[in-house]
């Protein structure tokens, strides 16, 4: 359900980005801002992401799987427990179904392959905000078969 601000408008969805590569975060930020999203924070590791979500309560957290201190799947588990209304999307290079299945079990609602990030990430955010699950086309068939 879309929130309405004091002026009767739908505010931009608030997004946290977590990736240990500055250049990746910068590119994602540019893409998402151009699509009308508000980037409320950027984290360089999973532990920072958990702390920032707990403090800021973004609508969506986009997490890389492979991050220092706390990987994206473990961070997702902690975020899901502490901030269940925050939608979680993993952005990853891992196509293997075991990663996607573990991510879904941890509370992740979107699984986007970095090879398709430009096309898929915006759609994944919009889909998860509506309460649905989003899987990149490159992973969805293997996950459905495995499930």
Topology:
Layout: E1 14-18, H1 22-34, E2 38-43, H2 46-56, E3 60-64, H3 72-82, E4 87-92, H4 97-105, E5 110-113, H5 117-129, E6 134-135, H6 137-146
Parallel strand pairs: 1-2, 1-3, 3-4, 4-5, 5-6
Helix pairs in contact: 2-3, 4-6
Description:
With 147 residues, the protein is α/β, with parallel strands linked by helices. The longest helix is centred in the N-terminal third of the chain and has 13 residues, at 22-34. Strands 2-1-3-4-5-6 form a 6-stranded parallel sheet, with helices on both faces. It contains 6 helices and 6 strands; from the N terminus they run βαβαβαβαβαβα. The protein is 46% helix and 19% strand. The radius of gyration is 14 Å and the shape is globular. 38% of the residues are buried. The mean pLDDT is 88. The protein has one domain: Rossmann fold.
Q: Give the strand content.
A: 15-25%
What is the CATH level 1 assignment? Alpha Beta
Looking at the overall shape, the CATH architecture is 3-Layer(aba) Sandwich
pLDDT < 50 stretches: none
Tell me the distance between the termini: 29 Å
Give the radius of gyration: 14 Å
The profile of the biggest β sheet is: 6 strands, parallel
Basic shape: globular
Q: What's the arrangement of strands in the largest beta sheet?
A: 2-1-3-4-5-6
The CATH superfamily turns out to be: Response regulator
- Number of structural domains: 1
Number of helices: 6
H/E series: EHEHEHEHEHEH
């Amino acid at each position: 359900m879309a929130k309405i601000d004091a002026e009767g408008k739908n505010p931009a969805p608030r997004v946290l980005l977590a990736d240990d590569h500055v250049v990746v975060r910068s590119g994602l930020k540019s893409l998402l801002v151009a699509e009308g999203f508000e980037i409320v924070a950027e984290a360089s590791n999973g532990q920072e992401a958990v702390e920032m979500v707990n403090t800021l309560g973004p609508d969506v957290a986009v997490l890389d799987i492979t991050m220092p201190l706390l990987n994206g799947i473990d961070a997702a588990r902690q975020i899901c427990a502490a901030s269940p209304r925050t939608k979680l999307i993993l952005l990853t290079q891992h196509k293997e179904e075991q990663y996607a299945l573990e991510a879904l079990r941890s509370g992740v609602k979107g699984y986007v392959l970095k090879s398709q990030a430009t096309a898929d990430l915006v759609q994944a955010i919009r889909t998860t905000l509506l309460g649905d699950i989003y899987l990149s086309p490159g992973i969805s068939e293997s996950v459905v078969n495995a499930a």
